């Protein structure tokens, strides 16, 4: 049982309209009441009420800050414990003064990163999948990523995992009954039952994994490298997509010397854009370092936006880059289409399908809709499902689903090979345990600590 009480600033540190200090635990109400000068005694106040007053220093009685205090009695709170939230004026000094006197109270300590959400999990209010969705809500890079995380936080995906787990546990129970009472076992029926029930579970896992690639992309963004020779419009394209001047643009080749990173959302698709230095042979030492970083970004990218100048013929450097991109996810951006065409389009069209070629004039901001369509078609088969938001997006969940899938496949193979049923039990139990790890059943403390350490302080 949790004995201590935790407190932390739950809003971003800095200037703002208000700042919130969150307190949770057995001493949250009494500890705050000792500091709170008001007409209301918090210890007698109803749950989910807001009270005006001042925070005072416990030793001197000096008024520290004018505040509103929100009281939520457990289990009807985020952590399922008694929770108090102190709304103070925004500002580094004001909120720090309030937190300092709060931490003077008995059994009160500063919360660890993610500890409020961790307590919600440990107290059974949410499962581990829902807890992990909280950090996805905070880090969402697009409306769609936020919607997916919100559905996961509400438990939509957890329900599907729990139903899947129920199918597997019923299969496991059937196997264990036959092990304990072999005189009632019908071998043919058992083998058929194992195969059929395993297949039901495998079909559901396959449905979930089908969304995994899209879900991971929506959660983390597509790492996108903008590459090409100097002065073809790479930085201009970045600025157009970001809708602000992130990169310096000049007519001088080699202006960009380093990799510039920016997150943008294109047609609900989050892109982690990397504007690279122009790739060419150069004697300039600083530019050489930039070109080396461009090659690294090119190797690590999920998507390459290869920019060519419509007003110039293909260069030897262009052809070398084109050769290196075989087998990669590439959208060829033909820029400067507002100028006379000198690019050999026949050679380009021999190398790329029409869907992967986008004609644009970044200067005139023309062709962006075609770029959106090309990227969407490459990663989402042209569209995103707007109705079903039960995407699997977490790498840990994907890995565990694949492990459960393999265990069930091993169990089917064992049953068809005539292997004793008690051996098959191991595979089925392994699948059940893997699915349990997703929602937080039977997970180790070290994994729980690792997951919640990624959260911000105060959440």
Automatic annotation (TrEMBL):
<keyword id="KW-0378">Hydrolase</keyword>
<dbReference type="GO" id="GO:0003924">
    <property type="term" value="F:GTPase activity"/>
</dbReference>
<feature type="binding site">
    <location>
        <position position="231"/>
    </location>
    <ligand>
        <name>K(+)</name>
    </ligand>
</feature>
<dbReference type="Pfam" id="PF12631">
    <property type="entry name" value="MnmE_helical"/>
</dbReference>
<dbReference type="InterPro" id="IPR004520">
    <property type="entry name" value="GTPase_MnmE"/>
</dbReference>
<dbReference type="GO" id="GO:0030488">
    <property type="term" value="P:tRNA methylation"/>
</dbReference>
<keyword id="KW-0547">Nucleotide-binding</keyword>
<dbReference type="GO" id="GO:0005829">
    <property type="term" value="C:cytosol"/>
</dbReference>
<dbReference type="InterPro" id="IPR031168">
    <property type="entry name" value="G_TrmE"/>
</dbReference>
<dbReference type="InterPro" id="IPR005225">
    <property type="entry name" value="Small_GTP-bd"/>
</dbReference>
<comment type="function">
    <text>Exhibits a very high intrinsic GTPase hydrolysis rate. Involved in the addition of a carboxymethylaminomethyl (cmnm) group at the wobble position (U34) of certain tRNAs, forming tRNA-cmnm(5)s(2)U34.</text>
</comment>
<dbReference type="GO" id="GO:0046872">
    <property type="term" value="F:metal ion binding"/>
</dbReference>
<dbReference type="InterPro" id="IPR025867">
    <property type="entry name" value="MnmE_helical"/>
</dbReference>
<dbReference type="InterPro" id="IPR027266">
    <property type="entry name" value="TrmE/GcvT-like"/>
</dbReference>
<feature type="domain" description="TrmE-type G">
    <location>
        <begin position="221"/>
        <end position="380"/>
    </location>
</feature>
<keyword id="KW-0963">Cytoplasm</keyword>
<comment type="similarity">
    <text>Belongs to the TRAFAC class TrmE-Era-EngA-EngB-Septin-like GTPase superfamily. TrmE GTPase family.</text>
</comment>
<protein>
    <recommendedName>
        <fullName>tRNA modification GTPase MnmE</fullName>
        <ecNumber>3.6.-.-</ecNumber>
    </recommendedName>
</protein>
<keyword id="KW-0819">tRNA processing</keyword>
<feature type="binding site">
    <location>
        <position position="235"/>
    </location>
    <ligand>
        <name>Mg(2+)</name>
    </ligand>
</feature>
<dbReference type="Pfam" id="PF01926">
    <property type="entry name" value="MMR_HSR1"/>
</dbReference>
<feature type="binding site">
    <location>
        <position position="125"/>
    </location>
    <ligand>
        <name>(6S)-5-formyl-5,6,7,8-tetrahydrofolate</name>
    </ligand>
</feature>
<feature type="binding site">
    <location>
        <position position="85"/>
    </location>
    <ligand>
        <name>(6S)-5-formyl-5,6,7,8-tetrahydrofolate</name>
    </ligand>
</feature>
<feature type="binding site">
    <location>
        <begin position="231"/>
        <end position="236"/>
    </location>
    <ligand>
        <name>GTP</name>
    </ligand>
</feature>
<dbReference type="GO" id="GO:0005525">
    <property type="term" value="F:GTP binding"/>
</dbReference>
<dbReference type="InterPro" id="IPR027417">
    <property type="entry name" value="P-loop_NTPase"/>
</dbReference>
<dbReference type="GO" id="GO:0002098">
    <property type="term" value="P:tRNA wobble uridine modification"/>
</dbReference>
<feature type="binding site">
    <location>
        <begin position="275"/>
        <end position="278"/>
    </location>
    <ligand>
        <name>GTP</name>
    </ligand>
</feature>
<dbReference type="GO" id="GO:0042802">
    <property type="term" value="F:identical protein binding"/>
</dbReference>
<dbReference type="InterPro" id="IPR027368">
    <property type="entry name" value="MnmE_dom2"/>
</dbReference>
<dbReference type="InterPro" id="IPR018948">
    <property type="entry name" value="GTP-bd_TrmE_N"/>
</dbReference>
<dbReference type="Pfam" id="PF10396">
    <property type="entry name" value="TrmE_N"/>
</dbReference>
<keyword id="KW-0479">Metal-binding</keyword>
<feature type="binding site">
    <location>
        <position position="252"/>
    </location>
    <ligand>
        <name>K(+)</name>
    </ligand>
</feature>
<feature type="binding site">
    <location>
        <position position="459"/>
    </location>
    <ligand>
        <name>(6S)-5-formyl-5,6,7,8-tetrahydrofolate</name>
    </ligand>
</feature>
<feature type="binding site">
    <location>
        <begin position="250"/>
        <end position="256"/>
    </location>
    <ligand>
        <name>GTP</name>
    </ligand>
</feature>
<dbReference type="InterPro" id="IPR006073">
    <property type="entry name" value="GTP-bd"/>
</dbReference>
<feature type="binding site">
    <location>
        <position position="22"/>
    </location>
    <ligand>
        <name>(6S)-5-formyl-5,6,7,8-tetrahydrofolate</name>
    </ligand>
</feature>
<feature type="binding site">
    <location>
        <position position="250"/>
    </location>
    <ligand>
        <name>K(+)</name>
    </ligand>
</feature>
<feature type="binding site">
    <location>
        <position position="255"/>
    </location>
    <ligand>
        <name>K(+)</name>
    </ligand>
</feature>
<keyword id="KW-0342">GTP-binding</keyword>
<keyword id="KW-0630">Potassium</keyword>
